[in-house]
Amino acid sequence: MKDSVAVIGAGTSGLILAKGLAQLGIDVTVYDQKEVLGSPVRASGILSINGLRSLGIEYEEAVTNTLYGATIHANKRSMHVESEEPKAHVLERHALNEICRKEAEMQGAKIILKRKINNSDLEELSKESIIVGADGAVSSVASYFKMGPIKEYLLTYRAEYKGDVENARSVDLFFDKSITPGFFGWLCPDSTDTLEVAVGISPSAGNAKAAFERFTRSGSMKGILGGYAFAGGMASMIPIGMRRRMADSKKEVLLVGDAAGQVKPSTGGGIIYGGNGAMMAAHAIYNYIKHGEGLEAYEKAYRKRYGKELMLHSAIHKAYAGLGGRGMGIAIDIFIALGVDGFLGRHGDMDMPSLMLKRLFLRRG
């Protein structure tokens, strides 16, 4: 039986996995084609504080801002949700990945950068090591080992603008089916002098950069970006559905993070779900090597723990994606009338929607 692990991809999930394996005494090597971890930044670094704590990372040095709430805009209507306590941090992704890298190396994991792994490399590595694909949505590991496709994606385009941020406590979300069909646009204060402006769209809607340009020229954005300087942008693809298989004992391969589709369909965020999946994968690999238990135990445990939550996130996504601007505007009016804004401010949980539902039922009872 193989007793070493090769992790392909040094993103957050891959590095958390490597740390977990090294802590358990498993020989692990991480390969990544990039020279600088977390660069280029293709996704936002908005992470719930509770979710961050669940990962066991000393993340504090990567924090660039702290968020207390969000304002939802649709059809000239707005609903502001704010908590007295901080709800999320904005993290600089390069700094976060460097922290994860150092923690993994301190435990004994080997990290090899500037090393692109192709199919012939996978063939050789798989002769002696268990393979873990942590190589993103378009995973070469998943493709090589025929782990099935991810069928649902979002296309995004995000950009940074430099200037004095007036309100650094809150995110703004803009729902307009004519501009961002299938998702939404957002403004996030990454820090007091950097504003992230981004959009997500359904793949059938065309080009994300074109949607971004429509968004920044829209009436909702008039006057907002006037005092800022464009500092560069980046397109990306985000999976919003889990892959059919995440583990295969016969092939001795697992997938974690975006490669497995461990992403919230409601927001496109994947670090918390992927990082927790990586910790589960580390224990499954240990039990496979030491006790002969099937790697499929990882997938079973993950779906049991997070399957319901991801289904709820998917339902939230489908609900707002199906509404036009007018429908979302009406929904905002109803939510305000019912006091949903106050409820979310007190009990909102951006990772675990089932907890909000439980609190809602308790409130009604």
The average pLDDT score comes to 91
Task: Give me the secondary-structure category.
Answer: alpha/beta
Lateral arrangement of strands in the main beta sheet? 6-5-11-12-13-10-14
Identify the overall geometry: globular
Number of strands: 16
Question: Could you name the ranges where pLDDT drops below 50 across 5 or more consecutive residues?
Answer: none
Any idea of the CATH class of the largest domain? Alpha Beta
Question: Could you please say which CATH topology of the largest domain applies here?
Answer: FAD/NAD(P)-binding domain
How much of the sequence is in beta strands?
15-25%
Per DSSP, the total helix count is: 11
Rg calc: 21 Å
Q: How many structural units, i.e. domains?
A: 2
SSE ordering: EHEEHEEEEHEHEHEEEEHEEEHHHHH
Helix content: 25-40%
Distance between the termini: 54 Å
Instruction: Please identify, by name, the CATH architecture of the largest domain.
Output: 3-Layer(bba) Sandwich
Main β-sheet description: 7 strands, mixed
CATH homologous superfamily title of the largest domain? FAD/NAD(P)-binding domain
Description:
The protein is α/β, with parallel strands linked by helices. It folds into two domains: 4-45 and 92-151 and 240-318, FAD/NAD(P)-binding domain, CATH 3.50.50.60; 153-239 and 323-364, D-Amino Acid Oxidase, Chain A, domain 2 (2-Layer Sandwich). Helix content is 37%, strand content 24%. It is built from eleven helices and 16 strands. A seven-stranded mixed sheet has the order 6-5-11-12-13-10-14, with helices on both faces. Strands 8-2-1-9-16-15 form a six-stranded mixed sheet. The chain has a three-stranded antiparallel sheet with strand order 3-7-4. The radius of gyration is 21 Å and the shape is globular. The mean pLDDT is 91.
